[in-house]
Amino acid sequence: MQFLDDSLHPENMDKVVITVAPYGPEWMPEDFPEDIPVTMQEQIDKAVECYEAGATVVHLHVREPDGKGSKRLSMFNELIAGVRKAVPDMIIQVGGSISFAPEDEGQAAKWLSDDTRHALADLDPKPDQVTVAINTIQMNIMELIYPEYYKGTSLDKPAVIEAYSEMIVPAGPAWVEEHLRRLQKAGIQPHFQLVGMHALESLDRLVRRGVYTGPLNLTCIGIGGGHHGPHPYNLFDFIQRAPDGCTITAESLFKNVLPWNTMALAMGLHARCGIEDTLIDQHGKRMTSVQQVRQTVRIAQELGREIANGKEAKKIYRIGTWYKAADETLAANGMTPNRKPGEKNVPLRAA
């Protein structure tokens, strides 16, 4: 992305789109009973509370009545319908893993099968977005979740720690292409969860080949364990390499969430928070999803940034926008055009 001399001035920045992830499939209700919703109505109400606090995107997972993460798409349909009725302007973003929580202690923490995740394109009512990973990679969320963070929680068991340490994100090239084809056919926008520069480069190639023909909404994930670590230069390098016409949301975990979000907000980008990312504040005290949203709003306002409402967020993300082919997609996302036969040097963007 290009930064001009006045790019850090808030009047030249988009309004902030705040994504909240309030369902936290890695936790059980007893880990934070004050803030982990269990019943369907509680889960709907949590989205409403976060929207009223300033979040305009809800990253959606679902719980069964016993508190475990649901892997039933019928439950997703029910929650999507409930959230859409309660807050029709909120962007509903379904987590592409569906639920990575182990079924029982000692079982693997894993993303569901290719076919099951493809079925997210058939959700009814359909969400605005589904998160999409690029490239199969390790997702060891325990690498940067220090013992003092999970002491006394449902994660504080050797078998569970092992399960989450060995988790893999399956996102090979054939699955990605088929998944993008199905989502685009259904009119569901992918929100790309990118774990490193290799994922950004692979996405660039998919656009250049015409496999994906829509807006580029990207999340730079700094959670370690096979993904970017929370080193500031990882975020800065990602921003420098990302296309001019994309949006970028920062995502990290535990005490890294606040500094990553603050850096992103200062640079005109967007933020994600919620108990899926951290249960605690910078002092180690429990912090609800709504409190995290309100904190993000305060920091953005201190920086002079305005908070996008639901309609504005949909415009910033270009929800419902699609392009005809690779050339139009490249131009719309501020990317260098493809090389024409015989063309020398770097192809220039048309005036």
TrEMBL record:
Gene3D superfamilies linked to this entry: Aldolase class I
One family name in Pfam for this protein: BKACE
GO molecular function: 3-keto-5-aminohexanoate cleavage activity; metal ion binding
Originating species: Paraburkholderia tuberum
Cofactor: Zn(2+)
Keyword Zinc part of the UniProt annotation: yes
Transmembrane regions: none
Name by which UniProt lists this protein: Uncharacterized conserved protein, DUF849 family
UniProtKB keywords: Metal-binding, Transferase, Zinc
UniProt cross-references to InterPro entries, sorted A to Z: Aldolase_TIM (IPR013785), BKACE (IPR008567)
